[in-house]
Each structure stands twice: as structure tokens, then as C-alpha cells.
Write a structure and sequence with these properties.
Blueprint (H helix, E strand, L loop, with lengths): L17 H12 L4 H6 L5 H10 L4 H33 L1 E6 L5 E7 L2 H11 L1 H4 L15 H14 L6 H8 L1 H9 L6 H10 L7
């Protein structure tokens, strides 16, 4: 679609055209920044983008050119970063050494352990890459009644003896209330009965 220059304010014809737009797109795909590529054609960016608002079909073409430029630029930057990673982790770099008077007396080789680790993870992931871990979180809610049942069961497993009233209270909330609120029987007959029911010393 050819864009015919339209008269501008004051009768001036705009410089924007499809040919100019195509030249901007080519410059951007070749690596130029967007604003310098526009201004190199003798048109300011405000006028350029104002015409893009009128010709919305050109916007995806410009965006595609910018994405292509950034992709190529990032590839080269990633390659440079990988070379720098290798240099710091494997080849190292020289660092000057100074004496007590501040005079350089030699050099020493420095290396980056972090760069070496990342280099190995990238080139030997089957050996040096971080292994995924699975964390299983469990949470068990135990109510008061169930808690009493569990405690009573463990007391029986450990050989502890409980009076029938306490055993019933562990399974019956109403009985538990009555047992908890009832005063202890300290009469001689109750004490003799408790002593008769108690196991001999040393017997579990």
C-alpha cells in the first residue's frame, strides 16, 4: 500500500511515505535503534508515530523489525557473556600485587568459583545441574475427643491401668464432664478398694 503524502499544516507536505517507512524498517532490522533510524530520514519521531496511528497496518511490520533486531542483538550478547563466563571461571585474570609501600611487586591469577559452577551447569547439566526436589507438607488436625482416644490407646499399649470411669470418660464427653467435676472419694472403703485393685510393686 503506497502512502501518498498529504498536505500538512500551513500547506506543507509531510515527508512520511511507505518508501520512507520501509527504509526505517530495513535500518532497524540491520541493528539500528528506532529513533536514530527515523531521524536519519529527516523526519522527527512524533510525526512518524502520528502517521502510524493513521496507518495501523504498518505497526506490526515495525514491531517485527524491532523484535528481529533485539533477537539478533541478544544472541551476540549471550555469546559474549558465555565467553566472559569461561574466561573468569577457567582462564582467570591477572590481578596486581602491591607491597607494604604501595609498589607493585607482582601479579597473581584470580578465578571465579561462581562462574565455573554456572559454566559446568550449562555444559554438563546431567551431572552438575540442580536436581528438582519435591516437598510434601502434611497437616493433621486432631480434635479433643480423638486426642483422648489416642492417649488412652497408648496408655493401654504401655501397660498403664485406668479405672472404668476414666475409660468411659475417654469415649464419652458427657461422662468426662461428670468425672472431671466429681470430687475424689477419700473414704476408708474407697482407699481399701483402690489398694486391692492396684498391682503389686514391681509388676507392670
Amino acid at each position: 500500500m503506497e502512502i501518498v503524502p498529504q498536505p500538512h499544516r500551513g500547506g506543507r507536505a509531510t515527508k512520511f511515505s511507505r518508501t520512507l517507512f520501509d527504509r526505517v524498517v530495513v535500518a532497524i532490522r540491520d541493528g539500528a535503534a528506532t529513533v536514530p533510524a527515523i531521524e536519519r530520514e529527516g523526519i522527527d519521531q512524533c510525526t512518524f508515530y502520528r502517521h502510524l496511528q493513521r496507518h495501523t497496518d504498518l505497526v506490526p511490520i515495525l514491531q517485527a523489525a524491532q523484535l528481529h533486531r533485539d533477537r539478533v542483538r541478544n544472541v551476540s550478547r549471550i555469546e559474549e557473556a558465555e565467553l566472559e563466563l569461561k574466561r573468569r571461571g577457567i582462564d582467570g585474570w591477572s590481578e596486581p600485587v602491591f607491597d607494604a609501600k604501595g609498589n607493585q611487586c607482582g601479579e597473581r591469577r584470580r578465578f571465579s568459583d561462581a562462574c565455573l559452577i554456572f559454566f559446568l551447569k550449562a555444559h554438563k547439566p546431567d551431572i552438575y545441574a540442580d536436581k528438582p526436589t519435591t516437598v510434601v507438607a502434611t497437616q493433621v488436625n486432631v480434635g479433643p475427643a480423638r486426642e483422648k482416644e489416642i492417649l488412652a490407646d497408648w496408655r493401654r499399649r504401655l501397660g498403664a491401668t485406668e479405672t472404668p470411669a476414666l475409660i468411659r470418660a475417654a469415649n464419652d464427653p458427657e461422662q468426662a464432664k461428670r468425672v472431671e467435676g466429681r470430687p475424689a472419694d477419700t473414704s476408708p472403703a474407697a482407699c481399701q478398694s483402690a489398694a486391692a485393685d492396684a498391682p503389686p510393686l514391681g509388676v507392670p
